[in-house]
Amino acid sequence: MLQNVPQGFVGYLCLFRTVVPKSPNLLCRKSSFFFFFFFLDQHGSVLLCFENSQAPQKSCFTRHRCCLLGYKRVDSRTIYVGNRPCPATETFIPPKFCDNRIVSSKYTIWNFLPKNLFEQFRRIANFYFLIIFLVQVIVDTPTSPVTSGLPLFFVITVTAIKQGYEDWLRHKADSEVNKYPVRVLEDGQPARKDSEKIKVGDIVEVVEDETFPCDLILLQSSRDDDTCFVTTASLDGESNHKTHYTVPDMEKDLQSLSATIECEQPQPDLYKYALISLTSLGPENLLLKGATLKNTKKIYGVAVYTGMETKMALNYQGKSQKRSAVEKSINAFLLVYLCILISKAVVCTTLKYVWQSQDGQDEPWYNQKTEKEKGTILYVKMFTDFLSFMVLFNFIIPVSMYVTVEMQKFLGSFFITWDRDFFDPEIEEGALVNTSDLNEELGQVEYVFTDKTGTLTQNNMEFIECCIDGFQYTAFSSELDSFCVTDGPVSTFQEKEELFLRALCLCHTVQVKEAGPDELGGDQVDGPASEPLRPAEQRGFIASSPDEVALVKGAMRYGFTFLGLESKTMKIKNWQNDVEEYELLHVLNFDPVRRRMSVIVRSKSGDTLLFCKGADSSIFPRVRPEEVERIRMHVQRSATEGYRTLCVAYKRLSVDEYAAADAGLREARLALQDREEKLMAVYNQVETAMSLIGATAVEDRLQEEAAQTMEALQGAGMKVWVLTGDKMETAKSTCYACRLFRRSTELLELTVRTLESGGRRREEMLHDLLFDFHRKAVQDRACFVRSWSSANPEYGFIVDGAALALVMNPSPDTNCSRYRSLFLQICQNCTAVLCCRMAPLQKAQIVKMVKNSKGSPITLSIGDGANDVSMILEAHVGIGVKGKEGRQAVRNSDYAIPKLKHLRKLLLAHGHLYYIRIAHLVQYFFYKNLCFILPQFLYQFFCGCSQQPLYDAAYLTMYNICFTSMPILAYSLLEQQIAIEVLLDNATLYRDIAKNAMLRWGPFLYWTVLAVFQGLIFFFGVKYLFSNPALQDNGQVFGNWSYGTIVFTVLVFTVTLKLALDTRHWTWINHFVIWGSLAFYVVFSFFWGGIIWPFLKQQRLYFVFFNMLSSVSAWLVIILLIVLSLLPDILLGVLRKPRGPHTQQVARLLARPSPCLYIAAPPPTHPPPFFFYTVRFFPSPIAARSVLPY
């Protein structure tokens, strides 16, 4: 019956009475009739719509989508406005939707303990020591379970407290959002509730300057024209004002409103929204969560998406456990040491049974086996012995290293917070550390992904100059009321000049807002005005684009003032103070494909004019060619100077031309299908055969030191990518201003415009462009490198969101992986990459693609809005800027800084030093533990592999916890091998530590060989001492515990003094912990061996330490072995010649005058604990300033 039926209206069925509704909108007036419509949509589904009620002044319009004749049902949701109960005739059961809670935390009270323990025991060392502890509990081992259990418990507890505290801060931030009070209409009455309690269908009230708590359909506005203005800076990075419209023919009495909405299921695209209705409603009716209401006193909207189903939440990349490259290196080194441990246990187990296989060795007369031992199976006994050796040698795995690393990261993060260079007096805040686990990653960044609006720029545009009819005009001085002409005659206003200024005053979407006494001269886009305005001009401006405000202000400076829009009438005051009125007929909005916008106005004289402004590439083909040449040179010059350029044109429309354009626009705007395509066709038809008037140059002010920061990052070897939701022209101008693109840079553009320029399918153009760009940027560039040519070309790559979608998700008949590979290679071979019109999830896709590429480069993302949260979470390191777009980015970032310029010091200074410190910490821990356990392994060859410990249990437990932990912790917090000023002045020093240079296998092998050398010296040096049978004055000999104590004493002094030799930046803290640790070891040994402890069953070291120090030979051997062990380091330090900036720094320090005393303290605004104050000697005040952080 419904076959071959055209799309649109099919028919109707009326029950009881037949009527025609007054409005076919989503929400229409209610009558007392029961009426059905049948419509056929673009999916081939029949829309069944009925209207029913018994109350004459209420509205209830419900639609059902029926599956007739095999047509497929479209996934949608039905929402009951006001959550009113549906009528008895309604067949839908209201579905359940998620609440409005936002969750960014990782743990809850109930899952913290199991989840945190699971994450911690995923670490190899923690899991290994847990197994060792269980073995010690179950199996009879030579050491007490306390030796493994106590350090493990300490590590797990400290780490859990640290991570629990950080997650508590996230819970606190979530609570501030979820508990924010909002106003809703419940049962027709206003009520207040927490934001988290908003339900789908609630009618929410929002007042000016408040953010929308969920995604809303705009029902009612306090403005007379049923519009409201919104800023979406926290969503797409654009701080300009956007106009949104209420539902057409909407009832004013919302308290008695009864209606339903059927719309699509939640999806993350910020720029698309499909409302399944009989009227054309779209994104202009949807208010997104996170956006802010501006220039509108109050609005009412119905909640359609809440909580984690809002578009902002769907663009939120879930939190994942970020692991630094240092932690991955630690795990790799642990595997090596675990193999060494297993090898030692296997060797000792084998040698034990080889030795016992000899006659008389298995069961000597003094050590007879028990009946239980005789009945034990041989293989079980061998496995038990293997586990015993594993326990005996388990200290080669440094479990305490993890707690030291955690403490180093936690305490080290305070130095970022205390750095007064990060303090911003405007917001009176400094840097913030949300996650201290990634401090060292700041020194390993290879790719920087940055937002544009609010991060690179202030979004504060200023009119610089213009070109009219080929003559260039710059900004005038305050004494003149006319243009200052730089290459043309100085005269009063001519016809072209007046027409140009009228175009600037009329061709825009600017709204005038009368300013209060505290806002005189300010506007909602451009920030505070640069100069006070005259009393008649004490008004602010809001607009859909920030450059529109700059252009209107520029025209105001030259005598043409825009007075506002009232009832479709635009008023301007000309330079003769006469008020001109124009009827606004149509606005042809800007879009990224056309790259222009137009208005059609009618003057008092009856002339119909079209004014158009846009990019030069969009305007030039639509004007007369002879007019282009006079303007092109000025446009190109302004663009190369980093200004944003726009061309201005106009056209007089005849009565017939306007009538055709008006009919076409109205028909296209009422179209249910392909509305955008139809509007585009009408726009292109009317914007032809125009006359070119001139061009403008507007400067988008950069953040302070933005260009210098980008240059420093590139000099450090980092590649900078700009990911923005803004338009391409604006973003490209910003890249030129930041010196990411230079005059010599050849730009490769992969955008919708280039894909549609060839007149072929997008997929075909994409294929050709990718291969062409790959040939230029990759293949030809490689040829230049191989030929050692000095003319190595530089390429910049520009891609927009639509083109990226084709690359990431091409059609099924194309090779997806091939396109991605070509795209990535092109990007990696360009000096800078610009990605514009990016949705938040696309930003995260870009970061993920680079992060997972060959070599796994370290990535950093920086942004200031909620639209940047996804890429901040996806990158290895996320930086939030404390800008004007809310604090979503700051809450979800790893680090937060007030301004972009602080990124330079954060990476080049703090990141560099953090990486060097923790890399030395890791290598040192493996080194000192190998020194510690190697003599224990060698001792087994002289005790019949009997599992006899060389060291006392107290020494085994306290070696890593007390005797050697504090010096390396102080070193890892305070060491500065290179002064901060030198690091900031020489960005190339950052490259010396790139790609995890200090934790590669080469340095690891050096530390391992050094540990083996010193371990051999310790053991065999003391063995040579014991070749003398009488070492004491009374003729008594030393026993095995004396042997182990001497080895342990040499060990503790050697590894501690080794760290002292490596220290370049001495403070009183370093002196205290290094010499204090050695003194503590001596004092502890005296007390441990000099007192009979009642809780010990056996006291192996009773008076052993006293007897050892009473021997002159022992003193001599200890000193000689320490010097011999440290000799390679001493010789290496003397013979090695310093190179590069290190040499210059040392030379400057040596040439300084007599030393003086300085006290280094953190800034008074953030006073630290007392022990962070340091007293140091410096050659001069300049040396002190170059080294001291404060």
UniProtKB/TrEMBL annotation:
Residues 180-312 form the P-type ATPase A domain. It is found in: Cell membrane; Early endosome; Endoplasmic reticulum membrane; Membrane. Its EC number is 7.6.2.1. It comes from the Eukaryota. PANTHER family: PHOSPHOLIPID-TRANSPORTING ATPASE IG, PROBABLE PHOSPHOLIPID-TRANSPORTING ATPASE. Residues 95-148 form the P-type ATPase N-terminal domain. GO terms for biological process: phospholipid translocation. This is Phospholipid-transporting ATPase. Gene3D superfamilies: Calcium-transporting ATPase, cytoplasmic domain N (3.40.1110.10), Calcium-transporting ATPase, cytoplasmic transduction domain A (2.70.150.10), HAD superfamily/HAD-like (3.40.50.1000). Belongs to the cation transport ATPase (P-type) (TC 3.A.3) family. Type IV subfamily. GO terms for molecular function: ATP binding; ATP hydrolysis activity; ATPase-coupled intramembrane lipid transporter activity; magnesium ion binding. Its main location: membrane. ATP binds at residues 451-453, 548, 590, 613, 644, 724-726, 837, 843, 867-868.
